[in-house]
Structures are given as C-alpha cells and as structure tokens.
Amino acid sequence: MPTEREAYAGDVAIIGRGPELTAAATFLQGPGSGLRALLFEGEAGIGKTTLWLETIGRASALGIRALPCRPAQMETGLALSAIADLVDTAPADAVASLPDPQRHALEITLLREDPGPSQLEPRAVSTAFRSLLAALTETGPVLVAIDDVQWLDPASANAIRYALRRLAGTSLRCLFTRRVTEPDPVHVEAIAPHEAVIQVRVGPLTLASLHQLLRDRLQHQFSRPALARIHQMCAGNPLHALEVARAMSLGTRRPLQGTAAPDDLRQLITSRVGRLPPDTRDALLACAALSRPTTMQVDECALLPAEVDELVRIDDSGLVRFQHPLYASAIYESAPRSQRRSTHLRLAQLVTDIEERARHLALAAAGPDGEIAGALEQAAAHARARGAWESAGDLLELAARLTPIDLASDGTRRTLAAAEHHVHAGDRPRARTLLEALLAEPLTPSARGRALYLLGEVACADEHYLEARRLFVTALELADDPRSAHACEMGLSFVDSNLSDFPAAAVHTYRALEYAEASGDGPIIAEALSACLALDFLCGRGFDSAKVERSLALEDTNRAVAPWRRPSGSVGQVMLWLGRHAEARERLLRVCTDARQRGDESDQAYTLVWLSWLETRGGDFAAAERFAREGVEEAALSGNQSTQGFLRAQQAYIHAHRGEIEQTRQACADAESAAEHFGNRLPAIWVAASRALLELSLGNPAAAWQACEPLTTLLEQYGIGEPVTVFFLPDAVESLIFRGELQRAHDLIDALERRGRELDRASALATGARCRGLLLATRGDVDGARSAFEQALVEHARVPMPFEQARTLLAKGIVERRARQRARAKASLQQALSEFQRMGAALFAARAHEEMRRLGLRRSNHELTECERRVAELAATGRTNRQIAAALFMSAKTVEANLARAYGKLGIASRAELGAVMASEGQR
Fold first, then answer.
1. Which run of H or of E encompasses 734?
2. How far apart are CA 828 and CA 703, in angstroms?
3. Structural element, H or E, at residue 38
4. Nearest-CA neighbor of 125 among 89, 83, 167, 164?
C-alpha cells in the first residue's frame, strides 16, 4: 500500500524551498514534550501541499506516527468527514481500547455502527477524538497533518479544535496548510502557546527555481526573456506558472507583460479542460461536485485523458483526487448553472450517504421545493444522531430556505430547530442571529414563545441573567403545553439561583415540577424533582430522601441537559452540603467521568467547583487546587466566564486556608470583577469568606469584619435558612468578638446554633459552639468556654472538616494556656499544630507555633525555640519584619529580637545567610 506521500506526490523534487524545509526540520526535531504546531500558509498554488507532503515523509522517517487528512472544498458540507479520515488512519486497537461511549461515537463517525434512536452529545466525538490522540501519544510522538485546513467541515473543525486545545502537555505535533484568503475554522495560532507555533508564509519562487521547475515538470526549455515574463506574470506562483508555460509550450498563449490575476489562472485551466473529450469534461465536473469521488461513481475510462494530462490522479482504491484543488474549483465554477444542477441531480441518485444526497438535491434545486426541504430535514436528523449538531443546524437552515411559502409553518419550525442545534453546538451568535430575524416576522404565539425561550437559553449561556429572565417570562406567557411551560420555569429558576434569590427560584422549580408531572415525561420530572430537592435545602427546608430516590430512578443519564439540571449532580451537591463527603465525592466524580466520556464539557467546570469546595472542607488543599485549576481551564476553553469567576473565588478560598496572602487577594479581585460583569452573586459568599479567613489569620479582625459585614447585615435582616449557605458566618462572629461587639456576636451564635439543631447540621453546631467558647472566654467564663469547645469537638467528629476542627483545638489551647492549664493546652496546641502542618495551613500553623512558645517549654541553649524557628523560616522566604509580625501576631521589635537570637544560635550575621542555613536545617 503506498504511503501518503507516494500516493499524493510521487517522487516530486522540492525546488527552492530551503527556509521552509529548515522550519519543518526544526518543528520535527524539537523537544519531545508539549504540543507544537507548524503552519504553512500562502496563496492558492504557491506550493503548500508539496511542503506538507514532504514534512509528513520526514516525520515518518523519524518514527513519528502521522494521521493525515486532506479535506476538499466540496467536503465542507459533509459532517465529520475529516475526523473520519483522521480516525481511519489510527490503529484499530487504539479505537477499540477507548471507553465504550467514546468508541461508539467514533464507530458512528466512521459509519461502522448505526447511531440508532439515541443521539450523541454535541461534544461526544470531540472527546473521543481527544482521548484517541492522548492514547496514541503515550506510545510515541504523533503528527496530526491537515492540508487546506480552511476546507474542514464545521463539525470536524470543532472536534479538532476541542481536542488539540486540551492536549497541550502531550508529544503531539500538528501540521497545517492554510490559504491566506480563506477563514481558518480551527484558529491554528490559538491551539498552542505562541512560542510553540511556527508560522511560515510560503512565498513566490525565484526565477532560477521557477526555471528548474518548468524544465523538470514540462520537459521544455524556455528562453530567459520568456522565463522572466512568465515569472513576472505569475508573481512566482508555481502552479500558475506551470499553467501559463504549458499553454505557451502548446502554442496556445503568448507571454504578456503585467501580472496575471486569479481569474486568468481559472481561464487557463478551463481552456486546458476544454481540449479534453466531452465525456471527460462531464466526468471531471462530476468529480468536482462530489465530496469524495471514486470510480464507482464516475466512469474511469472517461477520466483517463484527464489523468494523462495530470489533472487528476486515481489511486489503487479508486479514489479520484485532483492534482490541485484549484483544478476542481475552476472546473466547477466555469460550468453553466444548468449543467451543475443536472449533475447534482444525477449524483443524488448515486451517492449512498443520506447527508450528501440531501446536499446534492439542494444544489440541484431551482427554487423552493418541499420534497427537497424534507430530505434536508431527514439528513439533519442523521447528522444530529452522529453528534454533528453544527452540520445538522446548517442542514435545517438550508431546509428552511427551500421550504415553499405555502408551507411557512414548516419553515418556521425548521428555523427554530436550526437555532436549537446551534445552541447545543455552542454557536450562540449564529443561534441569536437566526432567532432575532425570526422574531421580526409574524409568528404564531407558540412559535414566538419557542423563539423567546431559545433566546433566553442563549442569554443564560452568555451569562446575561437579567435579559434571560425577561425572555423566559415572556415565553412563559405564550407557552401552550406543559413541556414548554416546564422549560420556561426551569429557566427562571436557574436565573434566580444565579442571582442568589433561592426562595424565588424554588417557587419556579415547584411550578416546573407541576408542568413536568402533567407532561408525564419521566426525565424532565426527575430534573424538576432534583432541582426542588436542592432549592428546598438551600432555603432551609431540610432534606427529602423520597425526592432523591424518585429523581434518580427517573433520570435519563444519556439526556443532553445543563449540569444544574442533572439529577445525579444535584444529589451529589446536597450530599456535600449535608457533610456526607464520601458519598458526595463519589457522585460528583461519577458525574465528571460520565460527562468526560460523553463529551459534555458543560458539566465539567460547574461540577469541579463543588469538588474543589468539598476537598477544601475536607482539608485536602492540594486536591482542591487541582480540581479548581482544571475547572478554570475547562471554563476558559468553553468560554464560560461566569463559572470561571466562580472558580477563581473558590481558588481564593483555598489560598486563604493555606495562608497565601497575595494569591488570596488577587483571586478575590478577579472573582469580584467577573461577578460584577455577569451579575452572578454566588461568588460573593466565597470572596467574603476568603477575605475574612485571611484577615483573621493575619490578626486583623477589623478587616475581617469589613469583608463580612454586608452579607452578615442581610443575614440579620432575613434570618438563616440553611447554615451551609452562610459558611462565612463563624468568621464574622469571631471578628465581632475580637472587636468587642459581644451582644451582636451572641445573637448570631444563637441563630446559627438554633438552625443547626433544627436541621441537625453538625458543621453549624461545631462552629457555633467554637464561637460560643470564644465569647465565653472573652467574658471570663473559662469553664463555660472549655465546655463549649468540648461540645464543638463532639460535633466535629460527625463531619470530616479537619481545618475547622484544628481551629477549635487552637482556640481551646489558647484558653487553656491563659488559664495556666499547661498540660491540656500543650495537648490541644500540639494536635492543632500537627493538623495545620499536615494540611499546609501556614498562617494558622504559625499561630499554633507561637502559642506553643508561650507555654514556655524548655529547650537547649543552642536550639531554636518554636518562635525563633518560625520567625527565621518566614524571614528566609524574604518577608519583612513588619510582614512577619502581622503573620505571627507580635510586634516588629519582638520579631527583631527573635531574629537576633536566631542569628546567634545559628552562627550567622545577616539575613542573606539565613536562606541556606534554614534549608540545611530543614533537611536534617
């Protein structure tokens, strides 16, 4: 079987392309890790494909597995054709080893399996392709090579872009060619860091190189003046020069002065084709009109003169390929429109693919045609079932345009369906354009309501919640069936949830449940039930296990829905809020895994927020940061900026637990900026909690209170619904105690503990008891404080929140130390210190160190005290005395004195020596 290079190019010498080949060598022989890309771009006929083929050949010689693909202009309407080509060149065992949902998606793409009644998720093929490439790179470097990237079909372009942007850390190499006058659907420059993309503009050949090319290819010797005129006319374009020179060598053209235009090249090709027999010209037009012509569709004997004339090449499998895409476009565009229509009509009877047949029928249509519009709608359903939602939307748009005026309602229905497909495919601007144009026309109330609802979904996806609310309200007024009304109510619930108005959101959700029950549709009943479950919890109405069981029993896990509607995800969130962390982790991870395998990236970032929060509460800050970082990347890749802001707020919360001062403040600022822009109020709770925790860690209760005051004032006005939603409150109370506002702190503690008892929330009871212990200690009731701390520890044992438990032990140890209960204080403080160090909570560990020092435990004369060691450690990181003082709750003079003693014991004289000495101390 011939190689890609042999099949397409034979033994063609590369002439006059030294710099371009040097760039190819640099690209292929560079570092083995990290995605890299090489782009050859230039005008049509400049020689990009020749360089592309040569680079593939060199890659194969270096042992790099190549996955080549050469889309043609007529393939842009054939869904997933390029992905099918790329996957078809991969080893069969690599496809077979993928998870079943992904393997199934690729088998459907290759048309090896029937999609059946189910529909693939919009990102199913994209995710499967990403997994396939990732698996291949584990065994060695892989080259994805796409010639004429501008001709990729939309579904393939989206899948390729999706996969490549998520494989930055692999040994993947990407080779592209691109025509400069055409749009690039992959956005090549954005798939890898700027320094990892080599962009080469392929320019004209020199006169000497052109002379060698014409001599070798045409076996004809031109005079130097003729060569100079050809070079000037064609601006060094090799394909154009070959056509001009071929015509001159046949005596059909005189060399002229000036520069030839692209139309001149088309005329040359048309003249060249015109010299062929009529049946050859007809066969060439058929080949130009087909996406992938073969000798099963076109008479091979008729094509023989064109093959001899080097217009086409027929490979061993019968595939007919034009020697250059310009030959196909020139042949097609020069044919009369009536001849093109008759050719498409004839080809529609020959092709077997339902989508390609429908497109041929559409190109054969002289005007609106109900039968052809129906065929296009059927083709759209086929494309959608294969996961090509973009192509399905395009087919439905075409069907709407070809719908006769007396069937206007069918045209409206098809336009609405096209918009819905574009929403699911992620092309919201296209959906908005279609819907706004449709709403400007006379519509039935039902159709107008549907258009308004879809426009509301676009607004929600774009995170414009106030616009979405207005659209959903109007759409609800026009809804004439339970399913439509259910969708509108669920949309309103989502909007109000993002605006933190949980009671209003719950009202809409219960109305949605009523409509769902009336429809009798199990999956939408499940979604409404799970939303009611979550909002009941957030409103402080408790936990209904019956709703959980029924929603999970009715859930359709294959249904394409937004993450906030997915019952298993909602149940996972509620388990987290209840403190059932192991169950929550299992459910949320399963949601992520299922979404990843299905290719539904919308679930990822949203679910990762809650996984990160879970691990923060569980004291595994490294895992929390991994989930948050992955979520930020996913949100950025999918364009979900509101969720990205939410994740930045969660990252701030992690940084605050770790005691990372500048990182916390920067993440808070980023989250606030995103929340202000998109109107999402939920991140404000995370920001307030992060700032309060950080400032308390730094011994600054005034700043902590400033962060919490707005939310706490609202809480005092409206009361506590569900304690988990006010997780900032214990820090607000602690800051009030330190500020001396004891009565206000007392009232808030009462409210928190009361709701904790009513709903049996161990986390609220534990933190409430700790706050009460601090309050009693401040009032001088040491015994009462110790009793409160003991009760807090009992509640802590019911829920795995080690950071909060360590804070309670620290508070207990401080009170015990002040009461001169040294043994008890030592036990409490040592346990707290051990936990803070294990979790990496630097500022709280420093506080525990300082409290241990204040116990006055004896040390050798040459050994650093805990306080001296902590001061030295912080100084070694480059912090100033003032910053160390703030971190350790001491004066700058005390810091200076501790540093002086540490220098004496360590035998050094300056801070410059401290880093190396402390590093060596830490290695002992």
1. helix 729-739
2. 28
3. strand 36-42
4. 83
Strand 142-146 with 172-179, pairing: parallel
Distance separating alpha carbons of residues 355 and 348, to the nearest angstrom:
10
According to CATH, what is the number of the domain 4-201?
3.40.50.300
How far is 372 from 41, CA to CA, in rounded Å?
A: 38
Cα–Cα separations (whole angstroms), residue 514 to 526, 530, 540: 12, 13, 22
Which backbone phi and psi does 114 adopt, to 5 degrees? Answer: -80, 130
Q: What is the pLDDT of residues 604-628, one digit of tens each?
A: 788 899 999 999 999 999 999 999 9
Specify whether the CB–CB gap between 701 and 735 falls below 8 A.
yes
From edge to edge, which strands make up the β-sheet containing 197-201? Answer: 65-69, 142-146, 172-179, 36-42, 197-201
The residue type found at 146 is I
Give the per-residue pLDDT at 854: 83
Single out the residue of 474, 479, 442, 441 nearest to residue 455, CA to CA: 474
CB neighbour list of residue 633: distance below 8 Å, 6 or more residues apart? none
In this predicted structure, which of 80-89, 118-127, 349-358 has the lowest mean pLDDT? 118-127
Half-sphere exposure of 682 (CA within 13 A, CB side): 22
Q: How many CA atoms lie within 13 A of 876 on its CB side?
A: 19
Q: What is the mean pLDDT of residues 81-102?
A: 88
First to last CA, the chain: 64
Gap between the Cα atoms of 601 and 578, Å rounded: 27
Q: Which of 4, 80, 86, 74 shows the shortest CA–CA distance to 292?
A: 74
**Are the C-beta atoms of residues 601 and 166 closer than 8 Å to each other?**
no
Q: Which two tokens stand for residue 856?
A: 């006055």
Q: What SS3 state is found at 532? A: helix
Output the pLDDT for position 5. 34
**Would the pTM count as exceeding 0.70?**
yes
d(CA 874, CA 881): 9
Q: In Å, how far from its chain's centre is CA 482?
A: 33
DSSP β-ladder status, 197-201 and 142-146: unpaired
Number of other residues whose CB lies within 10 A of the CB of residue 531: 28
Read off the pLDDT of residues 814-839 as tens digits, 9 standing for 90 and up.
Answer: 999 888 888 899 999 999 999 999 99
Per-residue model confidence as pLDDT tens digits over 260-291: 445 677 888 888 888 999 999 999 999 999 98
User: Among 2.60.40.3140, 1.10.10.10, 3.40.190.150, 1.25.40.20, what is the CATH number of 858-924?
Assistant: 1.10.10.10
Contact 421, 384 (CB under 8 A): yes
**pLDDT level of residue 41 (50, 70, 90 thresholds):** very high
8 Å CB contact between 847 and 835: no
- Quote the CA–CA distance of 183 and 397 in Å, as a whole number: 21
The helix or strand, by DSSP H or E, that contains position 263, with its residue range, turns out to be: helix 262-274
- Confidence category of residue 861, pLDDT binned at 50, 70, 90: low
Which residues, 6 or more positions from 439, have their beta carbon under 8 angstroms from its beta carbon? 448, 451, 452, 455
Higher pLDDT, 10 or 563: 563
Angstrom distances, CA of residue 43 to CA of 180, 247, 633? 6, 22, 35
Query: Could you state, in order of their start, the residue ranges of all structural domains in the chain?
Result: 4-201, 207-252, 858-924
